[in-house]
Design goal:
- The complex is a heterodimer of chains A (169) and B (294).
- With 169 residues, chain A is an alpha+beta fold.
- Chain A has two domains: 75 residues, Beta-grasp domain (Ubiquitin-like (UB roll)), CATH 3.10.20; 67 residues, DNA polymerase, domain 1.
- In chain A, strands 2-1-5-3-4 form a five-stranded mixed β-sheet, with helices on both faces.
- Chain B has 294 residues and is an alpha+beta fold.
- Chain B folds into three domains: 46 residues, Uridine Diphospho-n-acetylenolpyruvylglucosamine Reductase, domain 2; 117 residues, Uridine Diphospho-n-acetylenolpyruvylglucosamine Reductase, domain 3, CATH 3.30.465.10; 104 residues, CO dehydrogenase flavoprotein, C-terminal domain (Enolase-like, domain 1).
- The longest helix of chain B is centred in the last third of the chain and has 32 residues.
- In chain B, a hairpin with a 6-residue loop joins strand 13 and strand 14.
- The radius of gyration of chain B is 19 Å and the shape is globular.
- In chain B, the strands form four sheets. Chain B has a five-stranded antiparallel β-sheet. In chain B, strands 11-12-13-14 form a four-stranded antiparallel β-sheet.
- The chains are: A alpha+beta (169), B alpha+beta (294).
- Chain A: It holds the Pfam family Fer2_2.
Chain lengths: 169, 294
């Protein structure tokens, strides 16, 4: 049996303020395009069917599952991955964002696999609700799974990030 | 866990999209993709072509028509309106409060940011909230094809499990959820293992009242049968000794699966039905009282 080569599409992705020109088959998931074609391996792929939340990215500022989008369908979108959360302070590695700093302060991660999805989700969540209650913090992260921390320290990290975001040290 | 190959089209006009669908027996429409992409990745679906409608203009609307007193009044939702946009519309919630009540239970906010309400309707999942809500409210879906446009009433939209009555060349372009009439009330509750998960059982009620007395009562169920189902329980709701849950269960065969046994689902129907009906009656009386004072 012979199969014809799969058609490839030229796709221009806008990720973290840079343009990535990639050539991908239509079936390339956005999560795979970010990792394999753009080389941005900060976005992690867990379940690949929208349940675990590890691959969550920001699309035009809103959290979405990159494993539930096709790269070819993301052409007009402004994408932010976990790599794009770090703030530029003139150093090569940049400065941790308030949410990243809070995870470090509060031991909000252990193995770190789920962390990119939490960081993006919470970044968008705090932009919408900068001063969440503990219940609202839990609701904010309800769509993300973590198998290490038991969530307690992630909830603390959300509340701490809210403090940091308001400039309370 | 990767989709099988497919051809991909991203038309810029509805006419081009309809022509593409008409020419392809095995084509599927991609809107939000929050149900379709997992099906592709798990290879439960393998369409020959995906027609991506995300670049089409004028389909992202959430429009409220009328002032709530007329038959044509209600909420019109375009095919590209995301669940989150419908949920955020205060005008939509004022016209038909059940929309927001149910939408806050649809998956997680992250999924609602991408998934579309119209897509959820034509995906026709009996475990999803919005198909049942459309049936309960007696709404409709407008579909287009190269052959023209037609309106499918909710009662005729669901053919079977995950199967709508759209033809292969039709695109659902707009859904219509009727406004809540004066003197009517609605309520929604569901039980899920974790917030945002598929409901083990979800129940919504729609009641109409006159002078505080129930004149019509209907209850819709999520995840109980393999199609979205609505049962008229007016008689049982009017009788102080009546058993609306029993009346509903007489019409239902709760499904057995890995998430819950049939017996447990029946138990949840018994618990939730009277609660939700009471909430809806309360809602109706509250609205009538406000209507009089206003």
């Amino acid at each position: 049996m012979t199969t014809s080569p799969e058609e490839l599409h030229d796709v221009r992705l806008h990720v973290n303020g840079s343009v990535h020109e990639v050539r991908v088959p239509a079936r390339r998931l956005l999560s795979d395009a970010l990792r394999h074609d753009c080389g941005l391996t900060g976005t992690h792929v867990g379940c690949e069917h929208g349940v675990c939340g590890a691959c969550t990215i920001l699309v035009d500022g809103k959290p979405m599952r990159s494993c539930l989008m096709l790269a070819v369908s993301a052409v007009d979108a402004e994408i932010t991955t976990v790599e794009g959360l770090t703030e530029d302070d003139g150093t090569p590695q940049g400065r941790l964002s308030p949410v990243q700093q809070a995870f470090s302060d509060c031991h909000g991660l252990q193995c770190g696999f789920c962390t990119p999805g939490f960081l993006t989700t919470i970044t968008a969540g705090l932009a919408e609700n900068p001063d969440p209650t503990e219940d609202e913090a839990r609701e904010m992260i309800a769509g993300n799974l973590c198998r290490c921390t038991g969530y307690q320290n992630i909830v603390k990290s959300v509340l701490r990030a809210a403090e940091l975001g308001k400039g309370e040290e | 866990m990767k989709p099988a190959p497919f051809a991909y089209l991203r038309p810029a006009t509805l006419e081009d999209a309809l022509a593409a669908l008409a020419g392809q027996q095995g084509a599927k429409v991609l809107a939000g993709g929050q149900s379709l992409v997992p099906l592709l990745s798990m290879r439960l679906a393998a369409p020959s072509t995906l027609v991506d409608i995300n670049a089409l203009p004028d389909l992202g609307h959430v429009t409220v028509t009328g002032d709530g007193d007329g038959a044509g009044d209600g909420v019109r939702i375009g095919a590209l309106a995301r669940h989150a946009e419908v949920l955020a519309s205060a005008e939509a919630a004022a016209s038909q409060p059940l929309l927001a009540m149910a939408l806050s239970h649809v998956a997680h906010p992250t999924i609602r940011n991408r998934g579309t309400t119209v897509g959820s309707l034509v995906h026709a999942d009996a475990a999803a909230e919005m198909p049942m809500v459309l049936r309960l409210l007696e709404g409709s879906v407008d579909v287009a094809s190269v052959r023209g446009r037609r309106t499918i009433p909710a009662a005729e939209l669901f053919a079977g499990p995950l199967e709508s009555t759209l033809a292969h060349d039709e695109i659902a372009v707009e859904a219509f959820f009727p406004a809540l009439a004066p003197g009517a009330g609605v309520a929604f509750q569901e039980i899920a293992r974790r917030h945002g998960d598929y409901a083990l059982v979800g129940v919504a009620a729609h009641v109409e009242t006159e002078g505080g007395e129930v004149t019509r009562a209907r209850v819709g169920f999520v995840s109980v049968s393999d199609v979205p189902v609505v049962v008229d329980v007016t008689g049982a709701a009017q009788d102080p000794e009546g058993d609306p849950a029993g009346a509903a269960l007489a019409e239902l065969e709760p499904a057995d699966d890995i998430h819950a046994t049939s017996a447990y689902r029946a138990h949840l129907v018994k618990v939730l039905t009277p609660r939700v009906l009471a909430d809806a009656v309360h809602h109706a009386r509250q609205r009538s009282a406000q209507g009089k004072s206003a």
